[in-house]
Amino acid sequence: MFAPSTPMARRQARTLGGSPLLRWALIAVALVFLGVFLFVPLVAVFTFAFQKGSAGYLAAVSHPEARSAILLTLTAAGIAVPLNLVFGLAAAWLLSRFRFPGRALLLTLIDLPFSVSPVIAGLIFVLLFGRQGWLGPWLAEWDLHVIFAVPGIVLATVFITLPFVVREVLPVMQAQGSDEEEAALTLGAGGWRTFLRVTLPKVKWGVLYGVILCNARAMGEFGAVSVVSGHVRGVTTTLPLHAEILYNEYDFTGAFAVASLLTLLALVTLVLKKYVEWRSEAS
Question: Is the pLDDT of residue 8 over 60?
């Protein structure tokens, strides 16, 4: 590390770096903030979850309604993530490789779930597919149920998680450029082969990063799913909704036991996120 060579440079370095007391004060503030808003809630979740011992914890997470909520959460995420992966790759490739009328509008629409409240998104689906909605009478004629049923939960989850893969893959594709793809096409490779052998390997860490974030949001979504689910216990309740129901019924041990599963998911997501960041920087 090189030290500043002139008095002016040394004064600027001291000004930018601040005094040691200031640095330690900022570190202390950051640690206190993390402790109050991160570590204390984490400890509280697991403390209440195991308040009745491991037997009470296992009974709460293995309850039939809890198992149903886990299965529905995995189902919604298992459908939403692959759909958004396919859409995200296609949209990122289109937006990074072509200039066309309406490109800015498409980017705006992709970012729409970031700017719209999840509750409003759920209400939009109710207005579209509810019994009194625009498509409600037609769905009733064919005895199709979207709102207060699993399809509505899946639709809401897909909408809320739509931008994650696109927004992680698009910058990577733009930074990589298209020279290697053009060379592969010139040498006779087909479109699919070029995409699978050239494009996809170059953006694999961006894809994995987007999938991790998409899955975490899908499994933890509350607002939009709460509106379209109807809170039918054992049928349309996901893990976040099941935790809310138990908490409102003063079953704190059960609520925090279910919440601990989501907390573990968040921790695993954080570890995977850091691993992907490390591998992408190393490669």
Answer: no
